[in-house]
Amino acid sequence: METTLAIEGMTCAACVRRIEKALASAPGVAGAVANLATERAAVRYDPAQTSPEVLAQVVERAGYAAHVERATPSDAEANARGHEREALGRRLSAAAVLTLPLWLLEMGPMLVPAFGHWLHAYVSMQALWVVSLVLASAVQFGPGWRFYRTGWAALRHGGPDMNTLVMLGTTAAYGYSVVATFAPGVLPEGTVHVYYEAAATIITLILAGKYLEAVAKGRTS
Fold it and tell me: What gap in Å lies between CA 75 and CA 198, rounded to an integer?
Protein backbone atom coordinates (compact mmCIF):
# COMPACT_ATOMS: atom_id res chain seq x y z
CA MET A 1 0.00 0.00 0.00
CA GLU A 2 0.95 3.64 -0.30
CA THR A 3 0.25 6.61 1.92
CA THR A 4 1.13 10.31 1.84
CA LEU A 5 2.49 12.14 4.86
CA ALA A 6 2.31 15.92 5.20
CA ILE A 7 5.55 17.10 6.80
CA GLU A 8 6.45 20.42 8.43
CA GLY A 9 9.97 21.67 9.03
CA MET A 10 11.82 20.62 5.87
CA THR A 11 14.21 23.39 4.84
CA CYS A 12 16.79 21.83 2.53
CA ALA A 13 17.90 18.74 0.63
CA ALA A 14 19.52 17.40 3.80
CA CYS A 15 16.10 17.35 5.46
CA VAL A 16 14.70 15.38 2.52
CA ARG A 17 17.47 12.79 2.77
CA ARG A 18 17.05 12.49 6.54
CA ILE A 19 13.32 11.89 6.26
CA GLU A 20 13.72 9.37 3.45
CA LYS A 21 16.42 7.53 5.39
CA ALA A 22 14.30 7.43 8.56
CA LEU A 23 11.28 6.11 6.69
CA ALA A 24 13.27 3.60 4.66
CA SER A 25 14.73 2.11 7.86
CA ALA A 26 11.29 1.59 9.41
CA PRO A 27 9.98 -2.01 9.42
CA GLY A 28 7.62 -2.78 6.58
CA VAL A 29 8.60 0.16 4.36
CA ALA A 30 9.34 -0.72 0.74
CA GLY A 31 10.21 2.81 -0.40
CA ALA A 32 9.88 6.47 0.55
CA VAL A 33 10.22 9.66 -1.49
CA ALA A 34 10.05 13.09 0.14
CA ASN A 35 9.38 16.31 -1.78
CA LEU A 36 10.74 19.58 -0.40
CA ALA A 37 8.52 21.82 -2.55
CA THR A 38 5.24 20.18 -1.63
CA GLU A 39 6.35 19.16 1.89
CA ARG A 40 5.00 15.64 1.35
CA ALA A 41 6.42 12.13 1.57
CA ALA A 42 5.02 9.25 -0.43
CA VAL A 43 5.61 5.94 1.36
CA ARG A 44 5.05 2.39 0.12
CA TYR A 45 4.59 -0.01 3.01
CA ASP A 46 3.36 -3.42 4.08
CA PRO A 47 0.13 -2.93 6.11
CA ALA A 48 0.85 -6.17 7.96
CA GLN A 49 3.97 -4.66 9.50
CA THR A 50 3.24 -0.96 9.93
CA SER A 51 0.62 1.77 9.48
CA PRO A 52 0.51 5.40 8.29
CA GLU A 53 0.25 6.61 11.90
CA VAL A 54 3.39 4.71 12.87
CA LEU A 55 5.21 6.15 9.85
CA ALA A 56 4.20 9.67 10.92
CA GLN A 57 5.72 8.94 14.34
CA VAL A 58 8.94 7.83 12.63
CA VAL A 59 9.16 11.21 10.91
CA GLU A 60 8.45 13.01 14.18
CA ARG A 61 11.26 11.13 15.92
CA ALA A 62 13.53 12.40 13.15
CA GLY A 63 12.67 15.94 14.22
CA TYR A 64 9.80 16.98 11.95
CA ALA A 65 6.08 17.43 12.46
CA ALA A 66 4.08 14.97 10.37
CA HIS A 67 0.53 13.76 9.92
CA VAL A 68 -1.27 11.40 7.59
CA GLU A 69 -2.94 13.22 4.73
CA ARG A 70 -6.64 12.45 4.89
CA ALA A 71 -8.19 15.14 2.67
CA THR A 72 -7.74 15.45 -1.06
CA PRO A 73 -4.21 16.62 -1.95
CA SER A 74 -5.31 20.08 -3.06
CA ASP A 75 -7.44 20.72 0.04
CA ALA A 76 -4.83 19.32 2.41
CA GLU A 77 -2.07 21.35 0.83
CA ALA A 78 -4.08 24.56 0.90
CA ASN A 79 -4.96 24.03 4.57
CA ALA A 80 -1.37 23.20 5.50
CA ARG A 81 -0.01 26.23 3.66
CA GLY A 82 -2.57 28.48 5.32
CA HIS A 83 -1.80 27.22 8.83
CA GLU A 84 1.94 27.51 8.25
CA ARG A 85 1.60 31.04 6.91
CA GLU A 86 -0.55 32.15 9.84
CA ALA A 87 1.79 30.61 12.42
CA LEU A 88 4.86 32.18 10.84
CA GLY A 89 3.06 35.52 10.62
CA ARG A 90 2.33 35.45 14.35
CA ARG A 91 5.89 34.50 15.22
CA LEU A 92 7.33 37.16 12.93
CA SER A 93 5.06 39.89 14.37
CA ALA A 94 6.00 38.98 17.95
CA ALA A 95 9.71 38.85 17.13
CA ALA A 96 9.62 42.21 15.32
CA VAL A 97 7.74 43.93 18.15
CA LEU A 98 10.29 42.67 20.69
CA THR A 99 13.36 43.31 18.53
CA LEU A 100 12.54 46.93 17.68
CA PRO A 101 13.10 48.21 21.27
CA LEU A 102 16.37 46.28 21.38
CA TRP A 103 17.52 48.09 18.24
CA LEU A 104 16.49 51.45 19.67
CA LEU A 105 18.37 50.82 22.92
CA GLU A 106 21.51 49.55 21.19
CA MET A 107 21.70 51.55 17.95
CA GLY A 108 19.77 54.68 18.96
CA PRO A 109 22.62 56.22 20.96
CA MET A 110 25.02 55.61 18.04
CA LEU A 111 22.74 57.14 15.45
CA VAL A 112 21.52 60.02 17.63
CA PRO A 113 24.20 60.96 20.19
CA ALA A 114 21.84 63.35 21.97
CA PHE A 115 19.47 60.47 22.64
CA GLY A 116 22.38 58.43 23.98
CA HIS A 117 23.45 61.20 26.39
CA TRP A 118 19.88 61.58 27.64
CA LEU A 119 19.36 57.84 28.04
CA HIS A 120 22.61 57.17 29.94
CA ALA A 121 21.98 60.17 32.19
CA TYR A 122 18.89 58.49 33.61
CA VAL A 123 19.48 54.77 33.13
CA SER A 124 22.59 52.80 34.05
CA MET A 125 24.27 50.54 31.52
CA GLN A 126 23.59 47.51 33.72
CA ALA A 127 19.88 48.34 33.81
CA LEU A 128 19.82 48.68 30.01
CA TRP A 129 21.49 45.29 29.64
CA VAL A 130 18.94 43.67 31.94
CA VAL A 131 16.06 45.17 29.94
CA SER A 132 17.73 43.94 26.76
CA LEU A 133 18.09 40.49 28.31
CA VAL A 134 14.36 40.32 29.02
CA LEU A 135 13.45 41.36 25.47
CA ALA A 136 16.02 39.07 23.86
CA SER A 137 14.93 36.12 26.02
CA ALA A 138 11.35 36.60 24.87
CA VAL A 139 12.52 36.42 21.24
CA GLN A 140 15.02 33.59 21.78
CA PHE A 141 12.65 31.26 23.59
CA GLY A 142 9.38 32.48 22.10
CA PRO A 143 9.34 32.91 18.31
CA GLY A 144 12.86 31.47 18.14
CA TRP A 145 12.01 28.23 19.94
CA ARG A 146 11.13 26.54 16.64
CA PHE A 147 14.84 26.65 15.73
CA TYR A 148 15.74 24.83 18.95
CA ARG A 149 13.08 22.20 18.42
CA THR A 150 14.04 21.30 14.86
CA GLY A 151 17.71 22.28 15.03
CA TRP A 152 18.48 20.15 18.07
CA ALA A 153 16.63 17.17 16.61
CA ALA A 154 18.69 17.44 13.42
CA LEU A 155 21.93 17.75 15.39
CA ARG A 156 21.04 14.79 17.59
CA HIS A 157 20.48 12.65 14.52
CA GLY A 158 23.84 13.64 13.04
CA GLY A 159 22.44 15.84 10.25
CA PRO A 160 22.70 19.53 11.24
CA ASP A 161 20.74 21.89 9.00
CA MET A 162 19.93 25.58 8.73
CA ASN A 163 17.83 25.44 11.90
CA THR A 164 20.84 24.04 13.75
CA LEU A 165 23.00 26.89 12.45
CA VAL A 166 20.50 29.51 13.62
CA MET A 167 20.18 27.78 16.99
CA LEU A 168 23.94 27.65 17.59
CA GLY A 169 24.67 31.15 16.27
CA THR A 170 21.98 32.95 18.24
CA THR A 171 22.66 30.91 21.38
CA ALA A 172 26.34 31.87 21.21
CA ALA A 173 25.51 35.58 20.95
CA TYR A 174 22.80 35.36 23.60
CA GLY A 175 24.87 33.23 25.99
CA TYR A 176 27.94 35.45 25.70
CA SER A 177 25.76 38.48 26.44
CA VAL A 178 24.32 36.83 29.55
CA VAL A 179 27.85 36.18 30.83
CA ALA A 180 28.84 39.79 30.10
CA THR A 181 25.76 41.02 31.98
CA PHE A 182 26.06 38.98 35.16
CA ALA A 183 29.66 37.72 35.28
CA PRO A 184 31.81 40.21 33.38
CA GLY A 185 34.84 39.33 35.48
CA VAL A 186 35.30 35.98 33.72
CA LEU A 187 35.81 37.68 30.36
CA PRO A 188 39.12 39.18 29.20
CA GLU A 189 39.57 42.89 29.68
CA GLY A 190 38.03 44.91 26.87
CA THR A 191 35.70 42.14 25.70
CA VAL A 192 32.70 42.83 27.93
CA HIS A 193 30.02 43.56 25.33
CA VAL A 194 26.48 42.36 24.78
CA TYR A 195 24.91 41.16 21.54
CA TYR A 196 21.30 40.73 22.50
CA GLU A 197 20.06 42.74 19.53
CA ALA A 198 22.17 40.63 17.13
CA ALA A 199 20.62 37.36 18.33
CA ALA A 200 17.10 38.77 18.19
CA THR A 201 17.66 40.34 14.77
CA ILE A 202 18.94 37.09 13.26
CA ILE A 203 15.84 35.24 14.46
CA THR A 204 13.54 37.99 13.19
CA LEU A 205 15.17 38.11 9.76
CA ILE A 206 15.14 34.32 9.36
CA LEU A 207 11.47 34.26 10.33
CA ALA A 208 10.79 37.01 7.78
CA GLY A 209 12.48 34.91 5.12
CA LYS A 210 10.48 31.84 6.09
CA TYR A 211 7.26 33.84 6.03
CA LEU A 212 7.98 35.13 2.53
CA GLU A 213 8.87 31.60 1.48
CA ALA A 214 5.55 30.32 2.83
CA VAL A 215 3.67 33.04 0.95
CA ALA A 216 5.52 32.18 -2.26
CA LYS A 217 4.84 28.45 -1.84
CA GLY A 218 1.16 29.16 -1.33
CA ARG A 219 0.94 31.22 -4.50
CA THR A 220 2.91 28.66 -6.47
CA SER A 221 0.61 25.88 -5.29
Answer: 40
Residues 6+ apart with CB under 8 A from 38: 77, 221
Instruction: Give me the helices (H) in 8-144, please.
Output: 13-24, 52-61, 73-111, 113-122, 125-140
Q: How far apart are CA 153 and CA 80, in angstroms?
A: 22
Task: Collapse the DSSP code of 193 into the 3-class scheme (helix H, G, I; strand E, B; otherwise coil) and give the result.
Answer: coil
Sign of CA dihedral 204, 208, 214, 217: negative
pTM: 0.73
In the chain, what percentage of residues exceed pLDDT 70? Answer: 94
Lowest mean pLDDT among 13-27, 41-55, 65-79, 201-215: 65-79
**Rounded Cα distance, 30 and 17, in Å:** 16
CA torsion, ordered 70, 76, 79, 85, to nearest 10 deg: 120
Q: At what angle do helices 162-182 and 125-140 cross, to 10 degrees?
A: 160
Helix (H, G, I), strand (E, B), or coil: what is residue 35?
A: strand
What are residue 83's phi and psi, to 5 degrees? -65, -40
Query: Closest Cα to residue 7, out of 53, 70, 56?
Result: 56
Separation between Cα atoms, residue 69 and residue 66, nearest integer Å: 9
Q: Residues 147-200: pLDDT tens digits?
A: 998 888 888 877 788 889 999 999 999 999 999 999 999 999 999 999 999 999
DSSP 11-25: -SHHHHHHHHHHHHT
